[in-house]
Design a protein that fits this description.
The chain is mainly α. It has 3 helices and no strands. Helix 1 packs antiparallel against helix 2 and helix 2 runs antiparallel to helix 3.
């Protein structure tokens, strides 16, 4: 990605290539479907361990989404900003990782 396709200066924003956006949106759509499935299980009074198993699958799917987005951020935004002398991005990355690990 070039500078125009990642985090922009003043107002932070990430411009993604269409392929990446599609891939991330597909992941979120699958997660959304899993959440609807969880709600349905609860409405049907499904057995608690079955609901918990599905909930764990949702957590794994969200974690996979986060890993993919984080990897893209590091490869593109963080690398570019460090090359441009902006080392503040490292502190931001550390804070983001700490939030993900809670």
């Amino acid at each position: 990605m070039d500078e125009k396709t990642c985090c922009c200066g003043g107002e932070k924003q990430t411009h993604r290539v269409e392929e990446e956006r599609k891939r991330l949106m597909n992941r979120l759509s699958r997660i959304e479907g899993q959440i609807r499935g969880l709600k349905g299980m609860l409405e049907r009074d499904a057995y608690c361990p079955d609901i918990l198993t599905q909930s764990a699958a949702v957590n794994a799917a969200v974690n996979a989404f986060n890993k993919e987005l984080l990897a893209s951020h590091i490869r593109n935004c963080v690398v570019r900003d460090v090359k441009n002398g902006d080392e503040e991005v490292i502190d931001e990355l550390v804070a983001t990782i700490q939030k993900l690990m809670k």
